[in-house]
Amino acid sequence: MAQQGPPPPPTDFQALMDAWDSPEEDAQIAAQAADAVLAAEARFAELARTIGQWRAFHATAHVDARMFVPQEVHAVSWLADRPDPPVAVSWQPQAVYTSCNGRAAVTTGGWHHPADGVGYFTTVWQQSHSDGWRWVVDHGDRLQTARPTPAEVTRRAASCANFLARSTAARHLYSSMTRRTWFSDDSSLVVEWQVGAMGERELWVRMWNGTDYVEVIHDVVGASDR
To answer: What is the pTM (predicted TM-score) of this model?
Structure first.
């Protein structure tokens, strides 16, 4: 996936439409998007149990999806014809962050495997009219101790306020970045990552809060021994 910049600046009509959005409509879009992404996660996990781990990853990946093994790879190519492990990893999202327009999201949570122990994951999702929800970036790491499981999945949505300011801030952010970057199509979610020579990796997720981008996820993965 080529480094993706923010979408073009909005037209006056787009800015006007954004101004017409009500908080109630924004909240409804966010709730529906969170429900849809969590349902996609559940289907993904069920596929892993029924058809095999890597086949499930392949079946749900965006055509330009990226994953880390530990270096960044084009997921569809890496997953093609890859043998599935005897037992698939199981996972459960613990938080979901949705874009303002409800067409992109990031989930993060915990995973478990009988042989590999426990860990965490962070997955970036994107919706298309033809293919539904597809993951575009996926990464994670092992942990010594599992993350605490919340009683309910945490849900947060990017603000839809100040559309023109968001576009300007996104372009400024993009122009100053030296890392790999992905923007949602409304620029309200930004994902950055970098991978070192030994497989060490960091991933950041930022969300528009109406006036600025705030960090909501920062994952750090140590050097790989593979």
So the answer is: 0.90
